[in-house]
Amino acid sequence: MSESVSARTSQTAPFDSGPRVPMYTPEFAADPHRAYREMREKFGSLAPVDLAPGVPATLVIGYRTAVRIFNDPDRFPADPRVWQEGVASDCPVLPMMEWRPNALRNSGTEHARYRQSNIAGLVGVDQYALQTTVERTAIPLINSICGSGSADLVRDYAFPLAFNVLNHLLGCPAELAGQAAQGMAAIFEGVDAERGNAMLAEALLGLAQYKRTHPGDDVTTRMLAHPAGLTDVEMLHQLATLYGAGIEPQQNLIVNTLLLMLADDRFGGSVLGGSLSTREALDEVLFDDPPMANFCISFPRQTIFLEDCWLPAHQPVLISMAACNTDPDIRSGQLAGNRSHLAFGTGPHACPANAIAYLIAQESVDHLLDALPEMKLAVPVNGLTWRPGPFHRALTALPVTFPPSPPIPE
After folding, report:
1. How far is CA 95 from each of CA 19, 182, 196, 207, 220, rounded to the nearest angstrom?
2. Quick one: 74 exposed, middle or buried, by C-beta within 10 A (0-12, 13-18, 19+)?
3. What pLDDT digit, counting tens, does each position of 17-49 carry?
4. What is the CA 29 to chain-centroid distance, rounded?
5. Phi and psi (nearest 5°) for 295?
6. Over the stretch 225-243, which tens digit does the pLDDT of each residue have?
7. Helix axes 354-371, 278-288, angle to 10 degrees
């Protein structure tokens, strides 16, 4: 961030009496819920944080405050263009937050135009066909590990499954898909994010151009056919949003659900004899460890007084879905079947693909545990490590063991 912007921010920022909470450290990643509790005790519903060194923001950790912000896009618009004028091009969180011509980073009529085209692409997804797609993707992955007796469920199962299912939905050729995956990985990790952003853009522009001449029964073709008449550049950014939501968070939802089911005796420990279902595990994960733990970013156009503090103009305001979902003011003991969580957002920017994400995760988990029901964690829970980063809740690996078994007929 430039010196002038830093100075302007510090004059109007709330919480000047103390340091900000760094959200990019391994310590935060290891135990974010402790950090949320400490922030709540010290600051209440709004907490001062750093998303990266020198990148301040306000984190919303109160459920009711978050719902108010979600449903007030006029005072809390999603357009970051003024903010990013003062941010260095190599800032590690910039690719996740910068302006793009898509629904995620616009407000008003432009947001509606982009969102309508996205919904048109997604609404045509056949849920029954999607179940078949997940099964056809899962079985070869299970067969690649079932004879070995051990696996890393991030590398060997969840990532390739989410990646391949999304590419099938988008109608993306393998070569372009591989390039897009490399770019998305760099963006989420914040390592060489600028290069990752360029790789992703090149691949998705290629996909948009390819589908104009090779239409099919896929999300990309339906978006191109929408009356909004999106240009290739606009399509690139719609596709970037779908890749951002459809691979990394989908992978994390699958992995975090598997971790809960393998580590918690309510779900069976070894998965045999558990009293709760995959669906109930998914509901609990979406409350406690949602794959995008802190996101849904807005940028107030003017200074706003909220919850007894001033939010400065053009400084990011993030919703902590994980912290809001565990807010003691609203938390009840019953999570199974409870969809009041904010894991998919709410209001005009709510995720339009939540049913698709839920179905993919449930089918993925069920296929794996049906095939390998005696699967166990290979290390204690406290021996697992979480990837640093302010936005996601993501394990570096999920090592498991199981009795070797023959392949499933394909």
Report:
1. 25, 14, 9, 20, 22
2. exposed
3. 568 999 999 999 999 999 999 999 999 999 999
4. 15
5. -165, -140
6. 999 999 999 999 999 889 8
7. 130
- Quote the Cα angle for 188-31-91, to 5°: 30
What residue type is 193 in one-letter code?
A
State both tokens at 22: 């760094």
> Which residues 6+ apart lie within 8 Å of 214 measured at CB?
171
H or E element that contains 56: strand 55-60
> Which pTM was predicted?
0.90
Cα separation, 119 vs 125, whole angstroms: 10
User: Is 80 exceeded by the pLDDT of residue 271?
Assistant: no
Whole-angstrom distance, CA of residue 47 vs CA of residue 65: 12
User: Which two tokens mark 85?
Assistant: 């004028």
For residue 9, pLDDT beyond 90: no
Structure tokens at 32: 């974010």
Q: Quick one: average pLDDT of 260-275?
A: 69
As a whole number of angstroms, the distance between CA 151 and CA 400 comes to 6
Query: Over the range 161-175, which residues count as b (16 or more CB within 10 Å of their CB) and which as e?
Result: bbbbbbbbbbbbeee
Question: pLDDT of 45-98, one tens digit each?
Answer: 999 999 999 999 999 999 999 999 999 999 999 999 999 999 998 899 998 999
Residue whose token pair is 């135990």: 31
Rg (CA), the chain: 21
Contact 253, 282 (CB under 8 A): yes
Q: Specify whether the backbone of 323 is left (phi greater than 0), alpha (psi in -120 to 50) or beta.
A: alpha
